[in-house]
């Protein structure tokens, strides 16, 4: 792969909450009633703004997230799995790629058919997309605008053949990372960019309860410098399909990213309470993470609007 020098990657965590979102409908707990903006957690999603425009997951909050963070175009979409809180906003990508791109203010010869939006997902998710959004793939005679998409199975890619996304001469490499979400095959993503002689990376691993050593090795073998790890950390208590905070940090200890961010959090604890719990109860158990923090790294809860750069 050619080595490039460029501006680096920039990602916005658009949503950091679990499937209910925070505040939870009908809940008056102190976290749901909090005035701290970091305690308002929409459904999980991330937006890579540079060097390509890329979104990971389109949950039911995607429309408002796209407006809030001013998404103007999309080069590609990555879907981790087909649960509603990660997929059900898919129809709103149609503004980035309609079945027809027609502007009545332009002469007919200036109107051209739009290019499909590439969506990368595993085979189970692709099946669910075709079933749940069957109208996208059904020909219609008129009306009913819908997305124009190209579904691409992540099984087509490997350690030696990553997804390559390009924009204005810059490129990133995306490695699909197999995860287990309970018994469901889920897909995390390692985003890599060659900057001069060094590779920098962001790993995004949400909705998982188990990560095989082969997946850990896949990240280690390809990340170069792992600047950020965004990882599922639901709550203090263990859960059958999600990492607890401590389980998430146990994986973080293996990967030793400079910065680790917990995502997909419930309303059990506020942002400040999660940070206090990490610092007081968890970090002393993980020598590698403690060393990184002492050297200027961090282990912290993510929040909606968090900007991370690599």
Describe this structure in words.
- The chain is α/β, with parallel strands linked by helices.
- Helices cover 20% and strands 28% of the residues.
- The protein is built from seven helices and 14 strands.
- The strands form two sheets. The chain has a seven-stranded mixed β-sheet.
- A hairpin with a 2-residue loop joins strand 9 and strand 10.
- The protein is globular, with a radius of gyration of 20 Å.
- It starts with 9 loop residues before the first strand and ends with a strand.
- The N terminus is likely disordered.
Order of helices and strands: EEEHEHEHEEEEEHEHEHHEE
Proportion of beta-strand residues: 25-35%
Order of the strands making up the biggest sheet: 6-5-4-3-2-1-14
Catalogue the unreliable spans. 1-5, 100-104
Oligomeric description of these chains = single chain
What's the β-strand tally?
14
Overall body shape: globular
Distance between termini? 19 Å
Helix content: 10-25%
Radius of gyration: 20 Å
Outline of this structure?
It is built from seven helices and 14 strands.
What is the strand and helix layout of this fold?
Elements lengths: L9 E6 L29 E6 L3 E3 L5 H7 L7 E3 L5 H4 L29 E5 L1 H10 L16 E5 L9 E5 L2 E12 L2 E12 L2 E8 L7 H10 L2 E8 L12 H11 L3 E5 L7 H12 L4 H8 L3 E4 L4 E4 L1
Key traits:
310 residues; alpha/beta; 7-stranded mixed beta sheet; 7 helices; disordered N terminus
């Amino acid at each position: 792969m050619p080595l490039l020098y460029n501006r680096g990657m920039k990602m916005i965590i658009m949503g950091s909450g679990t499937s209910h979102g925070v505040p939870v409908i009908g809940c008056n707990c102190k976290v749901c009633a909090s005035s701290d903006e970091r305690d308002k957690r929409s459904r999980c999603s991330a937006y890579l703004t540079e060097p390509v425009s890329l979104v990971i997951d389109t949950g039911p909050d995607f429309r408002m997230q796209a407006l809030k963070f001013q998404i103007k175009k999309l080069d590609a979409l990555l879907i981790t799995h087909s649960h509603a809180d990660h997929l059900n906003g898919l129809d709103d990508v149609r503004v980035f790629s309609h079945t027809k791109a027609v502007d009545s203010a332009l002469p007919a010869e200036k109107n051209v058919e739009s290019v499909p939006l590439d969506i990368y997902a595993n085979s189970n998710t692709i099946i669910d997309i075709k079933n749940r959004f069957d109208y996208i793939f059904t020909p219609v005679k008129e009306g009913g605008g819908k997305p124009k998409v190209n579904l691409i199975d992540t099984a087509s890619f490997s350690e030696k053949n990553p997804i390559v996304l390009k924009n204005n001469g810059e490129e990133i490499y995306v490695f699909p990372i197999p995860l287990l979400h309970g018994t469901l095959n889920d897909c995390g993503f390692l985003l890599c960019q060659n900057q001069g002689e060094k590779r920098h990376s962001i790993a995004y691993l949400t909705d998982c309860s188990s990560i095989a050593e082969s997946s850990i090795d896949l990240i280690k073998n390809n990340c170069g410098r792992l600047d950020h790890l965004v990882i599922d950390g639901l709550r203090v208590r263990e859960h059958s399909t999600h990492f607890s905070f401590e389980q998430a940090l146990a994986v973080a200890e293996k990967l030793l990213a400079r910065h680790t961010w917990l995502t997909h959090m419930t309303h059990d604890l506020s942002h400040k309470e999660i940070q206090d719990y990490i610092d007081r109860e968890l970090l002393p158990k993980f020598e590698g993470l403690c060393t990184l923090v002492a050297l200027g790294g961090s282990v912290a809860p993510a929040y909606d609007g968090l900007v991370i750069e690599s």
